[in-house]
Structures are given as C-alpha cells and as structure tokens.
Specification:
By secondary structure, this protein is α/β, with parallel strands linked by helices. It contains twelve helices and 20 strands. Helix 1 (about 25-35) crosses helix 7, helix 2 runs parallel beside helix 9 (about 325-335) and helix 5 packs parallel to helix 7 (about 230-260). The protein is globular. The two termini are about 35 Å apart.
Length: about 475
C-alpha cells in the first residue's frame, strides 16, 4: 500500500466543516472526510513547527530531549526505515524551517523538492523597498515580513501561491510515479501560517467591507494592541487562507482520484497546532519581542489538531474519540507498510482503532514545548484525559526531573534566536498556577477548577510524570 501524508501548518481543527464549522468554506477536505476516519481528539505532541516534524519523522515524543534544532544523525527516521523496505520516498515541501540552514529533514528520502520563498527563506533581494500592510508596531519582526514581501512580490496569480505550487508539484510527481511498486509521499505546506496573503477574493469571502489596516503578521502576546475590528479581519485573512489551502489540497486529492490511487493508497491529512485570534486575550502562540521569548498556555485552540485518515478499505466516514497524537501517525505508516516494531517508535498505530480492534491507544495525551531548557521560557504542558484539560506549570521549581541545558536561548517559534524570558520567574514564583478545565461544561476554558479539584490535579500531574519518564531516553 502506498502512503501520502499531507501536513498543513497552523490549520485549526475548528476551522474545518467536518469538525463542525459551518461558516468557513472547506469543501474539498470535507469531501475527503466523508470517506475517511475522523479523529475528534487528535492533539499535538511536541510544539511547535520543527519539534512537531521531529515527532513525525521519528515516531517519538521528542519534547523531553529535543528542541527546535536540526534533525540529529542519531535519530532513526521513517524515510530511512521505509527505504530499507524498498519504498520510494519523496518529500515535497514549502515549509522552510525543516530544510534551510542545515536542518536536514530531507534525510533518508529517495528524492526531495523545496518550493522556495516562504516567510524566513532568504530567497529574493528585490524589490528593495516594500510597503507594510499596517503600522509597524503591530507587526512581529519587521525584517522577516519585509523578506516575505520581497519573496512574493513577483506573483502573477493564485497558482504562484506557495500551497498551490506545493500541491501542483506533488500532483506532477504522482503523475510520473504512480506506477511505482510502493511509495511514501510527504507533502508539507506552511500555509495557512501567517503572513496571511491569499488572493483578495478569498479574504472578501469573510470580511468584504473592511477598510482598516491589515495585520497580516501580528505581534505575539496579549492582544490589547489590536482593535476588535482588526482581530475580526485577522480571522478573515486566516479563513481566506484556509479556503485557499483547501482548494489546492483538493487539487491534489482530485489527482489522486484521477490516477486511481485511492484503490491502493493511504492518505493522511493533519496539522501541527493552531493559533490564537484573541481567545484567552492572546494573539499567536507565544509571547515574542525581537529579542525575548516566552511560552504561553496551550489551550484547545492550539493543542487540538485535525486528523483525517483514508484507507482503501474505508468507503464511508467514521469518527473516533480516542486520544491520538503525531507519533501515532508514523506508527500507522509503518504498520501499513508491514514494518515490524523496531523498538524505536513510541507512537501506537492508528490502524487498530480504525479497524475496530481497539477503542483507545492511551489514557492521556500530552502537548508540550521542548523541556530541555527546564524552567527557562516558562513552558506549560497540556495534559488531556477524559473530560479534563490540565495545563501544568513545570516552571515551578519543585519539578527537579525536568531536564535543563546550560544555554538559555531558543529558535522557537520561527527559527530566529531569542533569549528565553526569565524575569517572569522572579515575579511569578509561587504565583504561576496550574490550570484545570472541564471541557464538556467549559469548552472555552474560562473557569479554572484547579483549587476545587486538587486530588484530580495530583493524579493528572502524576500521570504526566510517568509519561514523561516513559518517553525520555535512557
């Protein structure tokens, strides 16, 4: 059986029709979902972009011992394993962070193609002067945005958008390789990640009469610097980009169908995390200035991700409530390839869930930034179990098991080196509180029950500790 994995960065689960959104237009993914397994409780594991791909590449929960860093040579990756089992493997990618500056995520693939120009990619030098979309104080890292604006300055139409180029390249590769004995194709697009720059007609679908500034690359942190109208329009920009992504993933899915590959190919669609548009008084997914970095709590809008899995034996949609995570996708790819357990993959295959042989893979899911810096950056870990979402604060000093490296800088969340924020530790020591939410009664996570459910918090913390130690290297 062939395998195609499609990863779309920063694609919020709740912006898809198949997950209940009746406002955002995603007809192609919704059509795909109607013949796929839909996982309602898929959660990110290692956060964000590069750590997520590290999990997918290795099938491991890497946040305890890896960070935003190049793919190490001592990590065994899925492309190498499949290559050893006579698979042709191909990576087609416009997500720059996993390829540029020696990050090496192409390692092990039979072939790979990088569609150049996304966001931090040093691709174009002209035009020297570009026009900013809004007041500079509202924007994150002006030089990065200027670079991106140069990279897209020569577009002539929708087909020049990055997701369009990436899905078109993937479709062309399938046209040339669909008769391969067996293949694994990983297609990775950075859209709908900001800067949001879809063609104007996509934005007009959602906010046609807006007259204000367009904050296409907002600062990360508290959202008080934005007006309600600007936040509303940011959501429209993002929604437009979501619909653009859907249109071009649909183009790839049509090619898969035209070539008859749905008869012998597993197709998986997923993302790495979401984005805050004013929820919890936040914009983005961290607190960032040009030089300082700090994590924020990973609520449902960030931690819960879409996951749609098509298998040739499936002919209609089915929904599953099991807690599943990205390393389980890798385990499923290897399972479908008939690769026996190598003792390296920590994920558990999704296939028994889809086949009805199991109803769950684990009791908890864990979504976490890298913990190799210990308390620096004030990381929060999100633990989901049953109806509960528990956000633990390993910044509290009484957590001696958290690993800590001497260096106190990070490249999260965009590859740019920043100092990890530490002053808040002094200000918040003893004040930084765990969070606990009952999702069925409080889906917006507005009522913290941590003081009322102390025994439950202790049990969840203990389960996180056990999980942490189980996935740490010896």
């Amino acid at each position: 059986m062939n395998k195609i994995l499609v990863v779309s960065d920063t694609f919020r689960q709740d912006y898809l029709g198949c997950y209940g959104n009746n406002r955002i237009r995603t007809p192609n993914l919704d059509k795909f979902a109607r013949k796929s397994a839909i996982f309602d409780n898929a959660y990110a594991a290692s956060f964000p972009t590069v750590p997520h791909r590290m999990d997918l590449a290795t099938g491991r929960f890497t946040f305890p011992y890896r960070e935003w860093e190049p793919l190490p040579q001592d990590e065994v990756v899925v492309s190498e394993i499949l290559g050893q089992h006579n698979y042709t493997t191909m990576l087609i990618c416009d997500t720059p962070h996993i390829l540029k500056d020696g990050y090496n995520f192409d390692r092990g693939f039979t072939g790979w193609e990088w569609i150049r120009g996304q966001v931090t990619d040093r691709f174009q030098t002209d035009p020297a002067e570009v026009s900013l979309p809004c007041s500079p104080e509202k924007l994150r890292h002006l030089e990065v945005l200027k670079l991106h604006l140069r990279n897209i300055a020569h577009r002539q139409g929708e087909k020049d958008c990055f997701v369009a180029q990436t899905m078109s390249k993937a479709a062309q590769w399938l046209e040339r390789n669909y008769k391969q004995d067996k293949f694994f194709l990983w297609v990775d697009t950075f859209d709908p990640h900001e800067p949001w720059d879809p063609p104007r007609y996509y934005v007009d679908m959602y906010d046609p009469n807006y007259k204000g500034e367009e904050v296409t690359y907002p600062k990360y942190g508290k959202c008080g610097f934005l007006t309600a109208e600007e936040i509303k329009h940011m959501r429209a920009l993002y929604a437009g980009e979501v619909t653009l992504v859907d249109r071009w993933i649909g183009f790839l899915l049509e090619e898969i169908e035209r070539l008859g590959l749905f008869d012998n190919t597993a197709v998986i669609f997923t993302s790495d995390h979401g984005f805050y548009f004013g929820e919890h008084n936040l914009v983005g997914k961290a607190t960032i200035t040009d030089h300082i970095f700090e994590y924020v709590s990973l609520y449902e809008e960030i931690a819960r991700i879409p996951l749609l899995v098509y298998l040739p034996k499936l002919r209609k949609s089915s929904r599953y409530s099991a807690l599943v995570q990205p390393p389980d996708i890798t385990a499923a790819v290897l399972d479908l390839a008939g690769v026996k357990d190598l003792g390296l993959v920590q994920g558990k295959s999704l296939v028994p869930i889809i086949e009805g042989k199991k109803d769950k893979l684990r009791d908890i899911s864990v979504t976490s930034p890298s913990l190799v810096h210990g308390t620096w950056g004030i990381p929060r870990v999100t633990v989901r179990k049953d109806d509960w979402s528990f956000i633990s604060t390993p910044a509290i000093p009484e957590r001696p098991h958290i690993l800590e490296k001497e260096k106190r800088k990070t490249r999260a969340v965009d590859g740019i080196v920043r100092e990890m924020h530490t002053s808040a530790l002094v200000e918040m020591r003893g004040k930084l509180q765990d969070e606990l939410y009952c999702l069925s009664k409080d889906p917006k996570q507005s009522l913290n029950l941590v003081d009322k459910e102390k025994e439950g918090v202790k049990k969840l913390r203990d389960e996180f500790d056990q999980f942490f130690h189980s996935v740490c290297p010896d």
